[in-house]
Write a structure and sequence with these properties.
Layout: H1 2-22, E1 28-30, E2 33-35, H2 43-86, H3 91-132, H4 141-164, H5 166-175, H6 183-198
Antiparallel strand pairs: 1-2
């Protein structure tokens, strides 16, 4: 069983390499201007490249997001059922806490996935238009705006996790160097400060 599967994968890789890399020279210099990924040998190559691009850099990433969060949710549910089976007197507390965690994971999954889809869609749409129209360039304000929105996702993503997960909040609070001072130490610090200002 392993040998035929390996043969199929190997031949598939050879076909993709031969068709995509060797025969699809898509870049040229015309009148001193470099045009990248706009010249295709045929409309089939152009369509294949466009579909490959959207699947590789957009659809697959969304599928990975959803798969990983789904696995996290399955593990949380399994741990909650194990904890509930071991606990007799506080099972309602465990169930409530487990439900809150599951809801939090689902909300985060939806927020991260939708935010990725919305923020990266303009860039991918522009790139698909670029592949279809050789007169478009990357020196366009629309491209820069779409890239700004896409990179904004990368900047905002850590803050999504920081606000949605209590363990992340706790770690971030521990990293903040200024700690709260208890009232007794605060009084001593104020007395020391007053003594220093008098002298």
């Amino acid at each position: 069983m392993a040998a035929p599967l390996g043969d199929i994968l190997g031949s598939g890789i050879r076909v993709v390499r031969r068709n995509c890399i060797q025969h699809s020279a898509t870049s040229r210099v015309v009148d001193g201007v470099c045009y990248a990924a706009v010249f295709f040998k045929s409309n089939v190559d152009q369509l294949f490249s466009t579909i490959w691009y959207m699947l590789s850099f957009y659809v697959v990433i969304l599928i990975i997001f959803i798969f990983c969060y789904w696995r996290i949710l399955i593990i949380i549910r399994h741990q909650a059922s194990v904890m509930a089976s071991h606990s007799t007197h506080e099972s309602n507390t465990y169930q409530t806490h487990s439900h809150q965690i599951q809801t939090n994971v689902i909300k985060t999954m939806i927020l991260v996935s939708v935010f990725f889809a919305v923020s990266w869609m303009p860039t991918h749409a522009y790139y698909v238009q670029y592949m279809m129209n050789p007169n478009m360039t990357f020196l366009d304000s629309r491209y820069y705006k779409s890239m700004f929105i896409a990179f904004l996702y990368s900047c905002v993503n850590p803050f999504i996790y920081a606000t949605k997960f209590d363990p992340v909040k706790k770690i971030l609070k521990d990293l903040i160097p200024c700690k709260k001072v208890d009232p007794v130490n605060r009084l001593r610090l104020l007395e020391l400060d007053q003594d220093l200002t008098r002298t």
